[in-house]
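agent> Task received from the user: take the single chain below, predict its 3D structure, and emit structure tokens. No templates, no multimer pairing.
agent> Plan: (1) validate residues, (2) run structure prediction, (3) serialize to tokens, (4) report one or two observations.
agent> Step 1 OK, no nonstandard residues flagged.
tool_call: predict_structure(input=
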Amino acid sequence: MRGATPTSGETRHRLDRRWGSLSLRASALLLACLQISSGVVLAQATVYESAQAPTQTSSQTGGSRPGPSAGTDSAPDAPETEVPAANPSRPTVTNPALLPPVGYLQFEQGVLFATAGPGGVAQQVALVQATKLAVHPRLMLQLLSEPFAATRQMPGTADAASTRDPGDLVFGVQGLLAKGGGAVPTVAVAYNRRLRAGSSADLDIGSYAQSGTLLVSGNAGKFHYDSNFGVTEQVASQAGADLAPTTLRRAQYLQSISLSHDLLPLGPGKKIQITGELWHATQPLVDATVSRRSNPRSNAVGALAAFGYAMRPNLVVDAGFDHGLTSTSTEWEGFAGFTYLLPHRLWRRGAESAAGRRGHGHS
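)
tool_result: status=success, residues=363
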């Protein structure tokens, strides 16, 4: 009826239309940045491989994969004239126990688009990035960041305006406890600590001050699996009884498992892989559903599906989606990105090989 108060569905539809153009522009800009980065990476890889063509043999031997392979405690190192294979962690929530090749920088870059998340998030477009370096066959350093996130809050929340903020900056270490082989899995532990707290809105798992994770990776028939069991410390500020700000600290528990399978070999060193994942995380600081109904004991659960394409042993591109299965999970997330292993070793192999032999001698 003309002049009647619009329903909540009509209001959301109008807001979605208004937000549509902005989100599309932001998505286009981020995807353009990603494509430019990918182009630079591809150009660099092509130039390097062309320069190494007379002596390089890794492209003929194959053995690369979008996901990690069991049986080694780190991705196998190639001879000095070969480009080793990347060992991606993205795009799954689960991280592999295996490490990248020792001495090579590995970059993981992606773009994420999410809708209907906890905390009143209506839509979010974000860049995510990870830089990893294995300094020993049993030790890896990593730096995780979210350089940019554009978020629109749902109507009725404390801050319904659109925001553009950076996320957390996290430093971490990962160490191998036991190397796998055959039916025996590889086992590792990881510790991450936040260096800088970001101001962007959190999604399912949220941000944490520090975290510890047990990682298990292995092969079961023609499938590769990765599984994580973790605990994080989540921190929030709230007003106390005297209205003075107090710090609230809560433990969060996470479990995840992912299965990967090679679908299509496309030639030496090139293949397509499909990955499926289930993950769960408690949400100690979330007390309402996505629709703003009270929910004091919240849990996020999601199902993820993704494809990975190894264009070269050291370059893997990926794309996929995640669907939330509870009322406090982000309803939909779509993502795309790439993993690139810089084909230049940062130090000579001699010293690390000797250290690796000493480490294996005590395993």
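agent> Step 4: summary for the user.
The longest strand covers residues 245-267.
agent> Done.
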